[in-house]
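job 3f2a | input accepted
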Amino acid sequence: MVGRHLYRPAYRVRVAGMERVPRTGPVVLVANHSTMIEPQLLFGLVPRRSVFLVKDEMFGAVAGPWLRRIGQVPVTRGAADRTALTTATGVLSAGGLVGVFPEGTRGAGEVASAHHGAAWLVRNSGAVVQPVVVRGTLRPPELPRRRLRPAVDVVAGEPFTLEVGRGRSGLAEATEHIRAALADLVSRVDAARHSDREEKQ
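job 3f2a | predicted structure (201 res):
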């Protein structure tokens, strides 16, 4: 897998559950977000062509031409970017996979909150929701600044279908369903990582 080899010098990338990702049909992949590494890892590890919603600032940077060449979609953060959502809906209508970071920005990656974009895409495309969690890219504050090839876990959970009701209340309810499913997967991955560390001590 491209993502695993790309970051091999810096991380020990451990991948689980990617066989769960539907190989065909519209899929909205939702993932947590802690660093700039997650989008690149997921793009390289997801076992089918993927289109991610990427903050529009990145398209004005050095990576801009490359992002356009591989078909990624610029999105304006902090606003309901209808152009980006319409473009992503077109990808889904053609049976594609669109990746979304519901938190909207980088943070602890625990998915304490989520925006409505993923639920909106599901409502307008009938796509399956595929949760994926990445843990280990963010350096814990109590550890030294440099870590020697820390373990990074990329775990795909079970895909699920979601009925999104009408209006903002329907979006809000579906968004909470997506947020809770992703946060639960984060908790389970964190628990497994903690258990693994304890066994090695």
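job 3f2a | The chain has six helices and seven strands.
job 3f2a | closed
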